[in-house]
Amino acid sequence: MKSSHLIFIFICLIILYSLFKPSYILEEFKSLQADQLLENGYLIIPNVVSIEECDDILSIIDKVESSHNDCGNIHSNYKRKDMMIPVSLVKEHIKNIYCRTKDIWKQITPNAILTECSSLISYPRSYPQIWHTDTSYKKGDANLVSIGVMLKDTDKKMGPLNVYKKSNKLYKKDIDSLLNKHDVDSSESDTFVSDVQQGLYKQTMEELCIKLNYKKKECTGSKGDLVVWLSSVVHRGGANNSNTSRPVFYFSLLSSRGTRPQGSTYSLIKQKKKIHLKQL
Q: Is the separation of the CB atoms in 269 and 126 below 8 Å?
């Protein structure tokens, strides 16, 4: 048999396997992604949202911005905008994203409640945010996860989401003891520095993460990729040193198991809207 025939047969077998591969392999892969998220505090899932869907979400964001421009209060808001998006306008997109990755959320946020539905845009020359967590956690608190859609190809110059890998485990430790043990100064930074500039200077949580050897990850990716982060992970939006804006559409899911952790990312709940994913 000629080598060209063997290559053809091999390619056919690969195609057949990709079409009919056992479902348990896909389930194990999704379970592995969920484990990675819980272990590292963040996850990047490529090629979830199509280019056309991204463009439609961008057009929705433009319409909302031109109509009411209802922006939230965020860290380091200079040239950075966090804007609520009505769920009714994007619910089909949320449903599609959820269904394409549902095996992950079934494990991490069972019977999920939608707590946030917003866009986050950082414009050219925006400062980096301060390092922060979205919530403070204690034993028995429910998982809260934010799912962002990269609406443009995103490189390091555009100031993508930065995280300290595995820093989501800090809430299980005594922070004050760690600060003393590693000789980290927990005093406030220069009081003459404005909030929008705080991210330019070294901060307590940043220094502690460095002392604990947590690795910093810049979450770059392509248009249509998902970037996912736990509310307990230390993170920030980076400085946008490019000549283009970095738009992200994101929504947050709260598990129905456990108590609600203290913190932000609850815009819909604050409006007395309790939306279960199954209601969309």
A: no
pLDDT > 90? residue 276? no
CB 213 within 8 A of CB 129: no
Structure-token match 């890998």, residue found = 165
Strands 135-136 and 262-263: antiparallel
190-229 exposure pattern, b = at least 16 Cβ within 10 A, e = fewer = eeeeeebbbbeeebbbbbbbeebebeebebbbebbbbbbb
Alpha-carbon span 130 to 4, nearest angstrom: 58
Q: Could you tell me if 261 and 137 are in contact, meaning their C-beta atoms sit under 8 angstroms apart?
A: yes
pLDDT of residue 115: 92
Element (H, E) at 270: helix 267-270
d(CA 174, CA 163): 20
Evaluate if residue 200 carries a pLDDT over 70: no
Reply yes or no on whether the pLDDT at 6 is more than 70.
no
> How open is the CA angle 108-111-112, to the nearest 5 degrees?
70
pLDDT at 73 over 60: no
CA separation for the pair 205, 242 (Å, rounded): 26
Integer Cα distance of 120 and 145 in angstroms: 16
- Contact (Cβ atoms closer than 8 angstroms) between residue 103 and residue 73: no
**Residues 245/193, Cβ–Cβ less than 8 Å:** no
Rounded to two decimals, the pTM is 0.82
- Partner residues linked to 113 by β-bridges: 254, 276
d(CA 177, CA 220): 34
pLDDT at 130: 87
Region of 213 on the Ramachandran plot (φ > 0 left; ψ -120 to 50 alpha; else beta): left
Angle at 227 between CA 167 and CA 244, to 5 degrees: 115
Give the pair of three-digit tokens for residue 34. 């969920």
